[in-house]
Amino acid sequence: MRTPGKAVLLTAAVCLSGVLATPADAAARSPESICGGGFGRVSGGTKDVVTPSGRKYGTVYLLYNRATQQNCVVTIKSSFVGAKTLVSAELTVMPKAVKDEKQNPIVRRDSGSYKYYAGPVKYWAKDLCVKFWGTIKPNGHDPAVARGGRQSWGNCG
Q1: CA separation for the pair 60, 62 (Å, rounded)
Q2: Other CB atoms closer than 10 Å to residue 87's CB: what's the count?
Q3: Are the C-beta atoms of residues 113 and 84 closer than 8 Å to each other?
Q4: Can you say how many angstroms the Cα of residue 32 is from the centroid of all Cα atoms in its chain?
Q5: pLDDT tens-digit profile of 35-65?
Q6: How far apart are CA 104 and CA 37, in angstroms?
Q7: What is d(CA 73, CA 78) in angstroms, rounded to the nearest whole number?
Q8: Exposure of 65 by Cβ count < 10 A (0-12 exposed, 13-18 middle, 19+ buried)?
Q9: pLDDT tens for each residue of 70-129
Q10: How far apart are the first and last CA of the chain?
Q11: Could you give the CA distance from residue 122 to residue 129 in angstroms, rounded to a whole number?
């Protein structure tokens, strides 16, 4: 004979564990898991996202997938985790010159009100130079915007 009390307790435990684990799981996601299979961090591709006064709000990552020849950028929050704040991830790619004519940079961006991270932002970039950037802006009357990344061309091949 089954006792309804044990079944109720077991059901409640399973439900609560799922509810309590979800935010922690989302916050603990790695840039590799966000970008997807085959992506790995590149040299110089991990930068703090900090305010002008030096407060760190998160990290922006540049990754590369050799199989697809794509770069991927993700900005992951370490402050205000679980609260919706403005977060962005940006990837800029410089195409090669065509017939000696310089091309305009290609900019891809994900920006919005997110609880955990912005991205993934992906673009094909084999043998092309890239820049990457991330921002985090907390809620409030006069919040300091945190910024980070690399504004110079790099990872060119």
Answers
A1: 7
A2: 29
A3: yes
A4: 10
A5: 999 999 999 999 999 999 999 999 999 999 9
A6: 30
A7: 16
A8: middle
A9: 999 999 999 999 999 999 999 999 987 677 778 899 999 999 999 999 999 999 999 899
A10: 68
A11: 14
